[in-house]
Amino acid sequence: MKRTYNWFTKDNSGAKNEFAKYGHTCEIPEEMDDVAEYYSPETFWNNLAKKAFQLRTVSDISKSYTHHLRSHGAIMKERKRHLIYHNYIIHPYSYFRVIWEMILSVVIYVQLILVPLHSGFCIIEDGHLMEGSESYLDPSIITLDFFLCTDVVINLFTGYYSEPKKEVILDLKHIFFQNSYSDIYVSCFYKASMIIYTSWYTQENPGGLVEYCVVTIMWFCSKAIQFFILARTLQIMKGVNSSHQKYVEMERQLKEYMRDKQLPTYMRTRLLTYYDYRFQRNYFRESEILATISGQLRQEIIMHSCRQLVENVAFFKNLPLNLLVRIVSCLRGEMYLMNDVIVRANTPGDCMYFIASGTVAIYSTSGKEICHLEDGSHFGEIALVNKAEARIASVVAIEICEVYRFDVKDFVRAIHPYPDLLDSIEKIASDRMEKTLMLDEHNRREMAMKRVNK
Q1: For residue 338, what is the domain's CATH number?
Q2: Residues 96 and 200 grouped into a single domain
Q3: For residue 133, which of 148, 291, 299, 452 sits 20 to 30 Å off, Cα-Cα?
Q4: Cα 363 to chain center, whole Å?
Q5: Domain count of the chain?
Q6: pLDDT by residue (tens digit) across 340-398?
């Protein structure tokens, strides 16, 4: 099964790709071949198991709110790991978790209403429930409690994101250690707080002046404590969400700007998509942060940020550490939306690009698709070794892409002391140029033959 995109017509936001005249339709495989092989042969139960796995594995929606699964290639890699090593675990970024969280939110809100009503309809005298006072809401309460208990069980088999490791933990032992006690304690605390909250509905009135004074003082003290806890909670939440509030304010200003400039709808959508993907709904000034720290710390941060890129790109394999640090420090991050032209054929080249996340399509000057490149790939290296040559291919973003730009001037300074590496890059560039030109020439001949036949 494949998910089809026509990159040469208008996309969902209305942006039109300028390669429409070639009428090409790109396809990105939506499912891994490993899934079909794992659940073969195609029987009723295997098909059912495959559908269940698709519900509990990572979904494309994860690109909207994660930092480590932001491309089609990264999601495919995560699905393969899930399928082979942790098949029966529920992925935290799956469609099932989204649906279940929505159901559980409704359950909790309903219980917040029904539990006080349930206690209010009960009449207790001498410590016993009076006959005929059983609440008609009992079955509803039992059903809601069942959902809460089910949530504890589901959480015990759901992976979690580890911030130190920057990955989703799907190992059952780690999940049990991380979730079992916390889920039970949270559930028990929730039920206990509901009981305490509703216990006043079933108590007798104070019998005397002293009891009235004690109850009144205790009531005021409890309310003061509640207000203090609420104020502290709001203060903490404000501090935690300060970056999100800044993003909301920036988004509001962006909308005002777009309204003032009377931008078309598709352009507004693309701008909002760019900001949402770039900042992940939390605004920060990276340039100011990096400007206030030492050069050593700045270098360590850059190396850590590009760690995944350095590990995936074959270009960086076995490079001396000094050269690797020099190259990485020269990289400049850029982001492109779907259908953006990153490189245009027949234009001067002054840099190469490394793909941190995303998928791009490569086209010859005649409009023939050459290939797709994903996370860890690079392109445009011909411009580094043949500065007099114009670009021999166009590069178009198939999905939102994060790339790092490596300029020629930085390349010359960094690579000059390493002639062997320069020879290797020149060989790669020469091979790619030869293949591209051959394919382009073959495509031109085909087009000429079609025109003659017509």
Answers
A1: 2.60.120.10
A2: yes
A3: 148
A4: 28
A5: 3
A6: 999 998 888 888 899 988 999 999 887 888 889 998 888 888 877 776 678 888 999 99
